[in-house]
Amino acid sequence: MAAVSVRTVGKLLFFFTFFSTVTVGWLDQLKVKAIDSPTDEEILQYQQQRAVEYNIVPPSSRHHHHTEEVPRMTMDTAILKVNTSLDYAVQIWAVSAECHKCNMSFMMEVDPTIPTEPFLVQTAFMTHISIVKDNHDGTNESICSLDKLFGEHGEYQMFINANGPSAENKFDCPVYADKDPIDSNIPILVAFCIYVGLVLIFLAVRQLYYTIGRSKYAWFIGYFPFRETDRLVNSDLGAPSPSSTATEDGRPVPNSTAQAAPQRLRRLKSLDTFRGLSLAVMVFVNYGGGGYWFFKHARWNGLTVADLVFPWFVFIMGTSIALSFRRLLKKGVSRPSLLWKVVQRTVILFLLGLFIINTKKGHNSWTTLRIPGVLQRLALTYFIVALMEVVGATAEDRNYSWKPQGYLSLYLLQTSRIAPIRDIVNSWGQWLVMVVMVTLHLVLTFWLKVENCPIGYLGPGGLSDMAHYNCTGGATGYIDRYIFTDDHIYQHPTPITVYKTEVPFDPEGLLGTLTSALLCFLGLQAGKILLTYTQNGARVGRFIGWAVATGAIGALLCDGRQNEGWIPLNKNLWSLSFVLVLSCFAFVLLSVCYIIIDVKQWWTGAPFYQVGMNSILVYIGHELCADKLPFQWAALSTHAHQLATDLVGTTLWVLIAVWLHYKKFYLKI
Question: Where in 127-249 does DSSP place strands (E)?
Fold first, then answer.
């Protein structure tokens, strides 16, 4: 199967950018709003404002057209109007299922003597609604309780009446749709079809080119340079990625079989593709992800697509460390020189994050400068793992083929017994360091005493725990606030919109660096597998084995649930279960990329391969160019337009990476 060329990928992406921009007008006909969902506080403020006005309008029924002023629906909202046949006032209380353990919030009072006006409800998650009667003596009487998942841009009516189905359930509160909701996922389907269509067009044109050759039509078909050589794609540019352990570990590769790993020294394209894919998705979600909730970070516990990409980047950084250091040691680079390179890179990464990324949009005051950050977390994680590898890495695999003597003939020390796990045994000292670091993380998380907070607290505080409102993140948040002070950490953490937290919390804080180092170290282990074993089957088998092991332990720690496990999945805390589950996903994705790209060679990895080779430039560039034309623009408030601008912005950075690869320009630090 012919490899996809760099120029072809660039032109293909250019056509996608043009086509997706042209189709924005048509996509607007989907009439899906696409700005951020209102918070519970915004909804409550709106209803309180409307409650003061009490404009008198003719009462509406299920099939009556609304004549009152209808609130403007935004993304992930619907309209609900409440009608009552009772002769006394009732109160509407509600809470989103996204807000775990939160008390219900007062929405409005429904008085039969005053016509009610419609109000907004969120549609991204299930809404728990309770209707109560205030007895004015400190007690309430429950009328109805229901859970309802509203549809986006639907218009609903609730009817409160005393015609309950039984003596125990005297009241009935059915909800009907006056206007059916829309399918807000259609723009995603359209975008997917555009990509698929472009791929099919590309394949058809390529086949046509190979069919007609240098005929009279070649002037047109020749515009697509299918015969681009693989030199640019396969060349070893000095980055960390030899693919063949036959040349990397010094042992001969048996003559053989389709299962043998390639013997030619070349760059492992699957690693760059893995890195580039993670970075491309990161750019997309940072630009807004089309306004969809699953392309935003989880508010506290749980996983979304946005929570996957940064940990995967950390994982593949560890894999690159293993391959890079082996290559440098084989070239004769001394360990002091390696250490100096590690220190240099750590400092540069940290300063780029501190002074370039953290000072965007006018955040350039020394008194409020945020110290932690994404690049800072990468820098510290890299330093920890790379320092261990400076000490423990070797230019060749250690040889355990000693002759058994005395107690050395024990089961675990025999060469034939240790060979299947020699990638682990060779790094026993590093494993010991990681066990100490993970133990330290658990001790600080569950036994550090935090003032006015329970020991081992892992919750978001705020509305989820009124008694510990300012305990957001427990020990994780406390350590950052103690070391950096409140003014120098992230001021707008993800739980603030749902849980109404008041204390700052940094998702890239110090304590989470210990577990991110574990994730990077597991990536390092993947690199050692590539260096130690020569057979593709052995490599992939160990990747899958590690995936099963880390996934099982992570699932055990979180009990397979979002909130109630011993250690929930939490990206804000970089909890141990989160790191293990994400490493499970990373091992699986690496296995797939390795088989498809490096073993079967069904795909060159383009265009993500080129993004992975210029990852620092793409990351810093997309951060600095956010909210700037042509990468982002003031799109109309629809899912379609928001998705279009985010996809175009992401595609432009992919195009830039492909062009820079063609020009052989790489930003290295």
Answer: 127-134, 140-148, 155-160, 175-179
Low-confidence ranges of the chain (pLDDT < 70): 1-69, 164-168, 212-266, 397-419
pLDDT at residue number 215 = 55
Residue-level pLDDT at 512: 95
Q: Is the omega angle on the peptide bond into residue 242 within 30 degrees of 0, that is, cis? A: no
H or E stretch including 309? helix 309-330
- Cβ neighbours, 10 Å, residue 122: 25
Give the number of C-alpha atoms closer than 13 A to the C-alpha of residue 247, restricted to the C-beta side: 12
Task: Look up the pTM and report it.
Answer: 0.80
- Integer CA distances (angstroms), 656 to 278, 310, 665, in order: 16, 21, 11
Give pLDDT, residue 198.
84
Catalytic residues: 297
Cβ atoms of 298 and 494 closer than 8 Å: yes
What long-range pairs does 439-446 form, CB within 8 A, spacing at least 24? 440/514, 441/511, 441/514, 441/515, 441/576, 442/576, 444/475, 444/479, 444/511, 445/474, 445/475, 445/476, 445/511, 445/573, 446/475
> 465-518, pLDDT tens digit by residue?
888 899 999 999 999 999 999 999 999 999 998 999 999 999 999 999 999 999
Looking at the DSSP bridge assignments, the partners of residue 2 are none
Burial of 219 (0-12, 13-18, 19+ CB in 10 A): exposed
- Give the CA angle between residues 509, 511, 512 to the nearest 5°: 70
Q: Measuring CA to CA, which residue among 204, 310, 283 is closest to residue 607?
A: 283
- Check if the beta carbon of residue 81 is closer than 8 Å to that of residue 60: yes
Give kind and range of the element (H or E) at residue 520.
helix 511-532
Residue 333 near residue 323, CB atoms below 8 Å: no
Closest residue by Cα to residue 132 from 174, 85, 171, 78: 171
Terminal-residue alpha carbon distance, the chain: 35
pLDDT digits (tens, 9 = 90+) for 262-283: 444 467 889 999 999 999 999 9
- State CA 551 to chain mean position distance: 17
